[in-house]
Amino acid sequence: MFAVQTWSLEIGSRVENFRLLDHQGGSHELYYYDDKKAVVFLVQGNGCPIVRNAMPRYSELAKTYQDQGVQFFLINSNLQDNRNSIQDEAIKFGYDIPILIDETQIIGESLNLVRTGEVFVLDPKTWKVIYHGALDDRLTYENQKAEASNHYLQNAIDSVLSDQQITVAQTDAVGCLINFPEKTNRAKHAAISYEKEIAPILQENCVACHRSGGIGPWAMTDYNMVKGFSLMIREVVRTKRMPPWHADPAVGHFSNDRSLTTEETRKLVHWIEAGSPRGKGVDPLTETGVSFAKWTNEPTLGPPDYVIDIPAMEIPASGVVDYQYHLVANPIPKDIWIGTAEILPGDPSVLHHVITSFGTLETEGRRAGKLKREGRGGLRGYAPGINADPFPEDTGMLLPAGTTLEFQMHYTPVGRPTVDATKMGIWVLDKTPKHEVFSLSVANFRIKIPAHARNHKETIAREIPKDAWLYSMLPHAHFRGKAMEMGVVYPDGEYELLLSVPNYDFNWQTSYTLSEPKLIPAGSKLIQHNWWDNSGQNKANPNPNIEVRWGQQSFEEMLFGAFMMRYLKAGHADRRMVWLASYVAERMLQEYSMLKYLPSMVAACAVYVARKNLGRNAWSPTLLHYAQYAESDLHACLKDMHGVLHSTKGSLAAVKKKYSSEKYGTVATMPLKVLD
Length: 676
Known about the structure:
By secondary structure, this protein is an alpha+beta fold. The protein folds into 5 domains: 19-179, Glutaredoxin; 184-273, no CATH class; 298-435, Jelly Rolls (Sandwich), CATH 2.60.120; 438-567, Jelly Rolls, CATH 2.60.120; 572-669, Cyclin-like (Cyclin A, domain 1, Orthogonal Bundle). The protein is built from 15 helices and 28 strands. The strands form 8 sheets. Strands 5-4-3-6-7 form a 5-stranded mixed β-sheet, covered by helices on one side. A 5-stranded mixed β-sheet has the order 8-17-11-14-18, with no helix packed on it. It has a 4-stranded antiparallel β-sheet with strand order 10-15-12-13, with no helix packed on it. Strand 6 (119-123) and strand 7 (128-133) form a beta hairpin. The two termini are 57 Å apart.
């Protein structure tokens, strides 16, 4: 027998800051609500009858007090629940209050939650617990009263609003016990290996910035530095400030995802809470060392083929520095295909961003001396957080000889005078790529953000004239930026959300690279939604008392986005794919035994066969979206198709002759594999 502690949250204990996403993907940081008179939480869990029964009353209280400065939340720390199942529960039972999802359990552990159905109230002036226990006395495990006799939560809120002492600050709560397996593993946490478990997490996710000369404010040079900053590390992990990755994990998959896994988060926080023990073994941060090249691409690509110096700029200690536009003649004497380009900041503390463009100089008229851009978008720019990875495989960007490069430089003084001497490195491809990438931008110059607006939304869209592949997305705003979404509206009106950034951070301008390129058909519209917080609750807001419009400076605002894409030109690989799919389809559509299948099914299977035999993934989420057939739906048709393609009868000589010619890549002569 063992006793379960019911009163877990002690009255007067202080709750540390944290950030969690809710069941709809909204981001909530606890300390953001310090303008409220009280913040109330009900611990929720799917399937708990106590919670389900209590929710109508809890929602009623939320509606009653929402205009009186009281913020209501639910919080879910159940291991067995996830975003989808919580969403289903909310829809089924009509929950209309944000459910914060504690998927790592580190917040629930630190709060020492015990049961679903618990209620606790926080004073935002001190972030101390001022009430903890039951919602009221109506519910028990076996019985329930028609009406409550004691309204504990309501009385506590009324006392807060009237500046009175809460008479009943703690009560027993009923509900389902929450399984926190790590609570019983405290001894094991002290045995977590710094050498084998913690240091590798730091090397993989942190050290690239937290190094000597890096953008991080301090260097993770050894264990002592990590231990000295360990509480700070715990704080930035709890508030999801670090590592700097702000995409909603439930929307899309990205190859450059820098976020910690659930297991990594738990291990790192538990190690810190155990006192950051050194343990035995070497210190990987000093023994193995981490070698950083001058250029991030140098370890894999070698030094850049060309380095272009951007004119140096003297930056004062304070004030506003207007955008600088430097024109530099392209020093490369021939046309080149660029595999990637990288900006090396001279002084990263003052350099906010660099945007690069290229083209020819106007020689006449009012635009004489101005750049006429090539229309391909810019080369790789710079902002804290932007990666300079090589362009996607088989792609590149053409930089013609005789062009002029333009560098837009945005500086922010940091309290000391300095000189910035930034450079750009260019890596040249050995051969002409199959495809040319370009950067397509969207911008809304007419944004108008009202003073004190806490959640103002504006939108911009741009139509795609030709079929294109989408590789990456970069949303942008300034200090008041709060959240962003980027998606596509297809020609049939269907909307697909591709990227959600519920917690935008101006200090990290991340370009999100899709794990799999997305096919965007002609006539689709790329769309971007921005939300801004122009209230005093936004600690970065320069002035909440003014209406804000488009402007270049950080104290103004932008709705801007960039998409890296390529059009579906008739590259050789693409042509061969089309020819092979066409060959298979033409054979099948003239085969009597295949008439039982819809033409769309036959076409989908033809594409499947072509991709399979040309070394591509036979089926993908993109093809599922457009064909509306899952891979399993194709099996019967593919089986019959296999029989036709490998039959010696009815070979349709004309079709086979056509696609055996050089004009069609001799695809009919290929030995075709249909089924494994």
